[in-house]
Amino acid sequence: MDYLIHLAILICIYAILAQSLNLVFGFTGLFDLGHIAFYGIGAYTSSLLTLTGVNFWLAFLAGGILAAVFGFLLGIPTLKLKGHFLAIATFGFGEIIRAVMLNWTKLTRGPLGLPGIPRPLLFGFKFSTSLSFLILIFAIAVILNFIIYQFMAKPFGRVLKAIREDEIAAQTLGRNTVQYKLIALTMGAFFAGLAGVFYAHYINFIDPSTFVLHEVVLIFLMVIMGGSGNFWGTIMGAALLVLLPEPLRFMQLPSSIVAPMRQIIYALLLIIIVIRYPNGLIGPRLKSSRKTRLATAEELALIEP
Amino acid sequence: MLKINNVSKSFGGVRAIDNVSFHVQDGSITALIGPNGAGKTTMFNIIAGLLEPGQGEIIFEGRNINRLPVYKRARLGISRTFQVLRHLPELSAEDNIILGMRKSHESFWDCFLPQKSRENKLRKEADKILRQVDLADKKHLDACELSYGQKKLLEIMRAFAQPAKLILLDEPASGVNPTMLKKISALIKEKQKAGYTLLIIEHNIPWVMGLADSVVVFNEGKKLTEGSPKEVQKDPRVMRAYLGK
């Protein structure tokens, strides 16, 4: 039973994290390979604060806000970059954050990680059992997903989609696209930070090895599998990918094999989905091939003499 | 409305636009014609702000807009279509038009306010606009699912839907069937009557000559001549540019 609750909690946390990436990547089309860094910033911020005695909910907000500040600061220089250059820049950002976590040992204890992160406290009630934590994180996941849904479903989200589809067209229609992209990235960072907070306070221990590239692959996979830009698809993608490698546990394999196996499965899945189902497994299968669209949308009228 | 003063633009060593000047009169339909590679679309991109002119100035309603970014020029009242279509493929035809209208409340804070009644009103307006080109029954389809001609019409209607003063149309007649072409002519004339100014790049010479008040002819990056359609058609240099020697 505890094992199932554990999986359900992970699904909730990933549903927030993946949905935040869905806002940034699936909706706005920003290739943010450093997204996991925001998750890490949220986790470290609230852990360090609560370990020095700060109230959990204050630390929770601080985690989100600091992640958002980093998102904003990262966005200012990078959002003028196009597709793959943005991916490289954000990837670099993710590596910098990980290097800081690893090397600022006075603050983060480096590779030793931070143990003893307390469980959340609300009106004197401590969410120390798995079940109580599940109820809390489920409520939080519903609320945060609902808020993200507001961004997607309102006219604001339509502009984000327009930017994803064709940024120059969106500019020609009078939209300040850089500003919209900046808001999307900042918001995405904020929600990823909040997800990171709950991860830290659930596992009670964090170290830099959680916030690495293969974790980025995992959340991208969740979003892409759900059909990029598809709200419910992303949630289902999160659930599916948390559960997918679990049968490995029951095969009685040594853990030195299981861990790399998980990564291989995820990586293979990513390759298969990108080639065979570029529009996702869960989301509506779209009619246009993304390949042709990218080819025309990139340079275009600028080339025409 | 629009004044182009001594504009030049080079790509590397190629001079795509060479010291070109012309004016677009308020409320007129001006045609921009010339052989392929004459620099017409480059001129459009300079006017809309996608390209910076190497030299010269773009004056829109008495204001130098050389340094304004694309979106600000759009807000000042310049709308355009593209030769290579730039519909938003995975947005519905309806959403394409609504984005053009620029009437929805799209700021960050508006996400926390109800928008339904306003959106419904905009949907009705978009329906009316799409009805004019027989696309109303396809409004829920993604733009990428439409045929080439329909996409073209969608883009033209999106440009028309914008709160603009000057509308730039890049080859509106190409790939459109004769019945629709008549429809487009009617829509363009209607827009002119409503006080809009139009600048049209077109290769369908008979069609655009019947529509335009004045014609500017480009050849090899230079302005060859300009005048009324009649004057231009008689000009032997125009014949030569189009037909070779």
What is this entry, summarized?
With 305 residues, chain A is mostly helical. Helices cover 70% and strands 1% of the residues of chain A. The longest helix of chain A is centred in the middle third of the chain and has 27 residues, at 177-203.
What are the defining features of this structure?
heterodimer; A: 305 residues; mainly alpha; two-stranded antiparallel ribbon; globular; B: 245 residues; alpha/beta; six-stranded mixed sheet; four-stranded antiparallel sheet; 9 helices; 24% strand
Structure description:
The complex is a heterodimer of chains A (305) and B (245). By secondary structure, chain A is an all-alpha fold. Chain A has one domain (2-302): ABC transporter involved in vitamin B12 uptake, BtuC. Chain A is 70% helix and 1% strand. A two-stranded antiparallel sheet of chain A has the order 1-2. Chain B has 245 residues and is of the alpha/beta class. Chain B is 38% helix and 24% strand. Chain B is built from nine helices and ten strands. In chain B, the strands form two sheets. Chain B has a six-stranded mixed sheet with strand order 6-7-8-3-9-10, sandwiched between helices. A four-stranded antiparallel sheet of chain B has the order 2-1-4-5, with helices on one face. The longest helix of chain B has 16 residues, at 116-131. Chain B starts with a strand and ends with a helix. The mean pLDDT of chain B is 91. The A-B interface holds A 150-151, 154-159, 161-162, 165-166, 168-177, 183, 229, 286-288, 293, 296-297, 300-302, 304-305 and B 11, 14, 16, 37, 39, 41-42, 44-45, 48, 50-51, 69-71, 74-75, 79-80, 82-91, 95, 98-100, 102, 104-108, 110-112, 115, 119, 142, 144-145, 158, 162, 170.
